């Protein structure tokens, strides 16, 4: 498992980590003549992430390293065991934070073993393993859209409270609304009838090609955004409804 997975992610980690380390120094390339700079770059890659989007590579490497331990546990677990784990995960990773943020209450029961991104790893397996009726799938998709809308509304409210400053409380990855949004999106894309959504065989082949390229697109996209920004093309150029797309 590790040989197969790491053979894909480690080259990307080293290549893009090195590239973005140099990209971050693009205005001070003269510093590359110092051995101290190279040592700092190496240390920066270890501590990471060297660029804002590369957190994903660090996270996925950690999950892959844990998988040989998680896999036998998950395989032998009953659906109820997995549901219980996910309940604890949502509580410890999501609800604890909101209680502390808005109720100013610190819950002293430690649940660190079920916190973090590993919950999404287990959630994906759980949603793949359990049988979900069409009615429940529709409910999850609607709940996903509702959660995303609520997150936007609450973020708008908090921004107004803080004189326009962005508050990412409801946009964090380990937030109950984000968890619901992710679960609904996962169920939709996993169970979508692509033969109906994309009747043309050519369009389905095109989608598969885009899907295969998604990892590379994710890794390169900040370079594209930076270059566009230099040219004055930013999300703030127009109203956000148009500027962001």
How would you describe this structure to a colleague?
- The chain has about 240 residues and is mostly helical.
- Helices cover about 70% and strands about 0% of the residues.
- About 10% of the residues are buried.
- The model has no long low-confidence stretch (mean pLDDT about 90).
Q: What would you call the structural class?
A: mainly alpha
Major β-sheet profile: none
C-alpha geometry: globular
Terminal Cα span: 38 Å
Return Rg in Å. Answer: 21 Å
How much of the residues is beta strand, in percent? under 5%
What's the average pLDDT? 90
Helix content: over 70%
**What is the overall number of helices?**
10
Question: Which helices and strands appear, and what pairs or packs with what?
Answer:
Layout: H1 2-24, H2 35-47, H3 55-76, H4 79-102, H5 118-129, H6 134-161, H7 176-191, H8 194-197, H9 201-230, H10 240-243
Summarize the structure.
By secondary structure, the chain is mostly helical. Helix content is 72%, strand content 0%. The two termini are 38 Å apart.
Index terms:
single chain; 245 residues; mainly alpha; 72% helix
């Amino acid at each position: 498992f590790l040989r197969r997975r790491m053979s894909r992610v480690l080259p990307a980690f080293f290549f893009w980590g090195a590239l973005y380390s140099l990209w971050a120094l693009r205005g001070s390339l003269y510093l590359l003549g110092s051995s101290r700079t190279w040592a700092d770059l190496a240390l920066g890659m270890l501590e990471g992430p060297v660029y804002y989007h590369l957190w994903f590579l660090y996270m996925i490497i950690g999950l892959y390293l844990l998988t040989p331990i998680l896999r036998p546990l998950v395989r032998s677990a009953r659906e109820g065991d997995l549901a219980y784990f996910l309940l604890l995960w949502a509580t410890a990773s999501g609800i604890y934070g909101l209680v502390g943020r808005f109720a100013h209450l610190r819950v002293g029961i430690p649940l660190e073993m079920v916190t973090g991104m590993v919950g999404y790893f287990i959630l994906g397996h759980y949603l793949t393993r359990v049988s979900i009726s069409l009615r429940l799938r529709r409910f999850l998709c609607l709940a996903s859209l509702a959660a995303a809308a609520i997150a936007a509304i609450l973020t708008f409210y908090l921004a107004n409270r803080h004189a326009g400053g962005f508050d990412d409380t409801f946009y964090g990855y380990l937030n109950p609304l984000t968890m619901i949004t992710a679960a609904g999106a996962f169920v939709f894309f996993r169970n979508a009838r692509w033969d109906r959504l994309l009747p043309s065989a050519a369009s389905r082949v095109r989608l598969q090609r885009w899907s295969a390229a998604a990892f590379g697109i994710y890794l390169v996209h900040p370079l594209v955004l930076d270059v566009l920004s230099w040219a004055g093309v930013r999300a703030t150029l127009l109203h956000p409804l148009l500027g962001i797309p």
